[in-house]
Specification:
- The chain folds into two domains: 19-40 and 289-382, Aspartate Aminotransferase, domain 1, CATH 3.90.1150; 62-283, Aspartate Aminotransferase, domain 2.
- The strands form three sheets. A seven-stranded mixed β-sheet has the order 2-8-7-6-5-3-4, sandwiched between helices. A four-stranded antiparallel β-sheet has the order 9-10-13-12.
- It is an alpha/beta fold.
- The protein has 14 helices and 13 strands.
- It binds pyridoxal-5'-phosphate (PLP).
Length: 387
């Protein structure tokens, strides 16, 4: 083994192996049904595969334009207009990114300077806080119970200070499966206008919404649209998490700053995938049926574990279902998630890993983006757990 010739001072000293890697490894070791990591078990549509193949074979294999293939930016503009009535100009307000992960990282880098505070709602997706810290920013938390009923906006108001420069939101939300209402977004609009701060809105699950609800994008709220980076992804929408194609919508002046960083981080994104997605987006049927597809899976999973004694609030969106086991056991969620993997053969994610201080609410997150057989098998095995 090589030993380093120079000492590198870590910029992320607290970051180690993520819980997702840990649980997936444990699942593999114990041959468990893996309902932990959030990616689909099934393939993308043959139609999309054919398009990708066609564009690779027709020579679309060199660098794409820095801001993205124009046909894809136009298709996103059209899709966003149809959903929200807001027009993002493909030339200057839409940038194609390497997944939403890059969009989020760049947006945070644009908005956050050393010493700035950023309001983060927790439980939170794991990439936000490291990106804030790498930019010298300070996360300020609004802590929500994973089964929360609503956001207390008086509490949120207390988190703003003269140093606040951005707020990060995520709707539909990973890991709680909650949707933000129009009223939530209006309240956020009032506060962020008053304090003049940027908003970074992670909307990667925008097409996975249940029980007749609708996704309200930050772009649809005028007081937010002019200060928001809307970060989207095709990974969840088309079962192509491995393609890593996402985008950022933002007003012209903000997009110009976004592109300055994007161009030196990745310069441009996978060319044939962009052409394929541009063509695939022409047909709204390709994403409008997704909610019904996942709602069936959510219902199948919930109905198959309903008699175990968990407290379950059906997920409102995303492909995650949380279950509270506080009636069944007092075990720490981290230990329980490990025990379920080892003893029952089902891997999940403990919710405490989404909190800065690892708060244990006795809740586990299960991903239902799996084949029905896998969900039924997982549910059956959860019946064997000794409480
Ligand atoms: C809430 C949330 N944001 C962003 C991402 C990353 O998206 P992408 O794979 O497009 O980079 C994920 C992926 O799991 C996610 O759950």
């Amino acid at each position: 083994m090589l030993s380093a010739g120079t000492e590198i001072r870590s910029k992320l000293p607290k970051v180690g192996t993520t819980i997702f890697t840990k649980m997936s490894k444990l699942a593999e070791e114990y041959k468990a049904i893996n309902l932990s990591q959030g990616f689909p078990e099934f393939d993308c549509s043959p139609g999309l595969q054919i398009l990708m193949d066609r564009y690779v074979r027709s020579g679309k294999n060199q660098y794409a334009p820095m801001a993205g293939v124009m046909a894809l930016r136009e298709a996103i503009s059209k899709k966003t207009y149809a959903a929200t009535g807001v027009e993002y100009h493909p030339e200057s307000e839409i940038t194609i990114t390497s997944g939403a992960s890059e969009a989020l990282y760049v947006a945070i880098s644009v908005a956050v300077h050393p010493g700035d505070e950023v309001i983060v709602f927790e439980p939170a997706y794991d990439s936000y806080v490291p990106a804030i810290e790498l930019n010298g920013g300070i996360p300020v938390y609004v802590t929500l119970d994973p089964l929360y009923d609503g956001i207390d906006w008086d509490v949120v108001a207390t988190r703003f200070s003269a140093k606040t420069k951005a707020v990060i939101i995520n709707t539909p939300h990973n890991p709680t499966g909650k949707l933000w209402t129009e009223s939530d977004l209006q309240k956020l609009g009032e506060l962020t206008t008053k304090h003049d701060v940027a908003v970074i809105s992670d909307e990667v699950y925008e097409h996975i919404i249940f029980d007749g609800r609708s996704h309200v994008s930050a772009s649809a709220i005028p007081s937010l649209a002019n200060r928001t980076f809307v970060c989207g992804s095709f990974g969840k929408t088309f079962h192509i998490t491995g393609w890593k194609v996402g985008y950022c919508l933002a007003p012209k002046e903000i997009s110009a700053e976004f592109r300055k960083i994007h161009q030196y981080l990745v310069f441009s994104v996978n060319t044939p995938a962009q052409f394929a997605l541009a063509e695939y987006l022409f047909e709204p049927e390709h994403y409008l049926g997704l909610s019904a597809f996942y709602e069936k899976k959510r219902n199948l999973f919930i109905n198959s574990i309903n008699d175990i004694g968990f407290e379950i609030k059906p997920s409102e969106g995303s492909f995650f279902q949380n279950v509270s086991y506080h009636h069944l056991s007092g075990e720490h969620d981290l230990y329980l998630a490990e025990r379920l993997t080892r003893e029952a053969g089902v891997a999940s994610i403990p919710l405490s890993s989404f909190y800065n201080e690892a708060v244990d609410y006795k809740v586990l997150r299960f991903c239902f983006a799996k084949n029905d057989d896998t969900l039924l098998k997982g549910a059956e095995m959860l019946h064997n757990v000794k409480w």
